Amino acid sequence: MKGQEWYQADDIAEEYDDKRFSRGGQLIDRREKTAVLDALGPLEGKNVLEIACGTGRFTVMLAEQGANVVGLDISAAMLQQGRKKAHASGVDDSLEFLRGDAGRLPFPDDHFDTVVAMRFFHLADDPAAFLSEMKRVAREQIVFDTFNRFSSRSVYNWALPMGSRLYSANEVSVLLAKNSLELVDVEHDFLAPYGLYRAIPNVLASPIRTLDRAVGRLPLTDHLMSVSYWNVRV
Fold this sequence. Notes:
Rossmann fold, 7 strands, globular
C-alpha cells in the first residue's frame, strides 16, 4: 500500500485531523460522514469493520450510532489517536482498534455485516485483491470511496507525498464485476478539489461549497466530480 511509512509517523498522526478537517475541511468531513451513514442505514447492533480507520473519524461515529465496530489500520500512531478519540467520546466498550494489513484481514469469512473503507482505495496497490478480501469477511455490504481520474483531483495529485490512484467509473465497475459485487448506489461529489477547501476558512469555503453543489446537479457533471461514494451488496 502506498504511503505506509508516511502514515505511520507520529507527527503525521498527531496533526492529521487538524490539517485535513479543520477550516474548510470541516465541510469534507461532514459530507463523508453523511455518505457513510446514508449508505449503512440503521446501525444499532450491527457488526462493522472499518479498513484503514486512521484516527477513528468514522470508527467512533459508527460506535456512537450503536454499531459494534472494529477499526483496523497499519499505523500504530494513527490507532493511538483513535483510542484517545474513542475514550473522549465514551464508546470504548463498543469498538476495538487493531493494527493489521488490509490485504490479509485477521478475521474468518462472513464475520462482519458491513465493511467500510474510506480514504483507502487511492492508496491501494492491488485494489481488486483488497476488495476480494473485504468481500470475504463481509456478509452483506461494502462501502468505500474513490478519487476520480477525470476531475480536479488530478491537478494536484502529483504533489501528494505518497501519490494517489485515480479511478474512472468504468474501472470501478470492472472491479465490482471481478468480485461479483452488486452496485446498490453511487454518489459523486466535489467539483472543486479537496485541497482548495482545506486551504481556506469556512467563511469562504461555505459559499464555494454551495456553488459546487449547485453546478454538480447539472447534467453530465458526474464524471468531473473529485470523489465517488460506492455502496455495494455482497
